[in-house]
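Lecture notes, continued. The same structure-token format from the folding unit now serves as the input rather than the output. Read the line below as a description of shape only.
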């Protein structure tokens, strides 16, 4: 799977909070969302019955649904059901240092983030930035 190197990158990002760019107003607890999964052995989320969960699929060059609103603590899983590779990358296309990125997701791959803090997140696919962009996750307070 592609998520393992990313976990290390996220840990580094979380250790140094000044990422040197502006993404608008982020809640103080954004750092919580940088850990995509508590269990690195299960980058696709694994089983966690206690956690609410929702899946966004990548299909026909689109995130479906494009915008979701979830309760705090929700595990959001992206699953690539398309015939080509995609990724899940925070922010607007071209951002130098996104807070998170799934890395390349092949057809059939899944990748998850546990959203434990209230926030608004915009994300896109860095491979298809002109088509798959402006998707959002809103985590309710
Ligand atoms: Cu894509």
């Amino acid at each position: 799977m592609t998520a393992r190197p990313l976990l290390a990158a996220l840990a580094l990002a979380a250790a140094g909070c000044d990422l040197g760019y502006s993404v608008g107003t982020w809640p103080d607890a954004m750092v919580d969302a940088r850990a995509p999964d508590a269990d690195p052995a299960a980058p696709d989320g694994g089983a966690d019955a206690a956690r609410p969960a929702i899946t966004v699929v990548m299909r026909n060059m689109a995130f479906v649904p494009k915008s979701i609103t979830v309760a705090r603590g929700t595990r959001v899983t992206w699953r690539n059901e398309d015939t080509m590779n995609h990724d899940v990358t925070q922010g607007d296309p071209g951002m130098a240092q996104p807070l998170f990125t799934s890395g390349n997701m092949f057809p059939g791959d899944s990748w998850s983030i546990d959203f434990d803090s209230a926030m608004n997140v915009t994300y896109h696919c860095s491979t298809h930035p002109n088509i798959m962009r402006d998707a959002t996750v809103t985590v309710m307070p």
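Point for the exam: The chain has a mean pLDDT of 74.
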